[in-house]
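lol forgot to send this yesterday, sorry. struct tokens for the thing we talked abt
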């Protein structure tokens, strides 16, 4: 399984902010926005990841993430100015995908909740068809799914676990088998002149190959499409992290926990950040690991 992150376009609702900072690098509390979708893919045991970004923004993403060596993963980049829809990612990334299955997530997608559902899904049998998710949404009025043509299937599969159709949404995280590349090529353009991600899901539905997983009431997807929602997401993450004493979307911690890197590598990542609370958090992870490993059996 490989992963694709489609970064957000730096325009529209963010005024002058994204003239100098790519949208997916805007801070959410103490981390760049892209850390959150990257952490989801890493938790799902995906170690080969493609980042699709605008040509002018590539240096920023590369400076932040490099080729993923420090995290024990492999990151590739494709610079593209022309893509108009998320579905274009499968054409742009066709060579990267090769003969593998693929997960796609937007660079502005932020989840809060246990990642176990995603990990279990990936540890099951090889991907067959498409898997999408239903999640309770903090901004349900903006992201309800009642307009989607597969609403009946969603309702029948997850039941009334959310209380009503308008209280859950489809987050921008999708798992597809390798057929997705050819499926995208056969789809007709919409009136907007694009292939929509919903068209792909509908095609898998026609093939009886669409699976929908409920992420449960404890799982939230956070909206970051406006200045106001960006601030709300930051406040939410900060509050939860303070209450729990652990970070959300900390890619260095995930790399260590998933054994992509060892304790020495984690320490090296923490050293340039020691003056920050984030760096101290990474150091504390290492110290706790040393204390645990030195305990007598």
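and heres what i got for the seq, position by position
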């Amino acid at each position: 399984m490989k992963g694709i992150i489609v970064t957000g376009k730096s325009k529209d609702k963010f005024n002058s902010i994204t003239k100098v900072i790519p949208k997916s690098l805007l801070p959410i509390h103490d981390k760049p926005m892209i850390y959150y979708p990257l952490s989801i893919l890493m938790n799902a045991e995906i170690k080969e990841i493609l980042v699709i970004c605008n040509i002018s923004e590539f240096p920023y993403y590369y400076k932040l993430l490099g080729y993923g060596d420090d995290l024990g993963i492999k990151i590739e980049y494709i610079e593209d100015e022309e893509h108009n829809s998320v579905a274009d990612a499968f054409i742009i990334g066709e060579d990267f995908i090769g003969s593998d299955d693929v997960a796609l997530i937007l660079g502005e997608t932020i989840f809060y909740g246990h990642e176990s559902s995603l990990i279990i899904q990936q540890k099951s049998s090889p991907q067959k068809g498409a898997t999408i998710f239903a999640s309770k949404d903090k901004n349900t009025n903006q992201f309800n799914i009642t307009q989607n043509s597969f609403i009946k299937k969603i309702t029948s599969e997850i039941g009334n676990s959310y209380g009503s159709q308008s209280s859950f949404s489809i987050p921008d995280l999708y798992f597809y088998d390798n057929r997705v590349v050819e499926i995208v090529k056969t789809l007709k353009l919409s009136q907007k002149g694009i292939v929509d991600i919903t068209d792909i899901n509908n095609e898998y539905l026609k093939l009886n190959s669409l699976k929908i997983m409920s992420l449960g009431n404890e799982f939230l997807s956070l909206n970051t499409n406006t200045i106001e929602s960006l601030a709300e997401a930051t406040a939410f993450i900060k509050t939860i992290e303070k209450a729990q004493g652990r970070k959300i979307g900390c890619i260095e911690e995930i790399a260590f926990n998933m054994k992509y890197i060892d304790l020495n590598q984690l320490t090296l990542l923490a050293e340039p950040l020691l003056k920050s609370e984030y760096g101290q958090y990474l150091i504390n992870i290492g110290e706790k690991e040393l204390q645990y490993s030195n305990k007598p059996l």
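The first helix runs from residue 35 to 43. anyway ping me if u want another try
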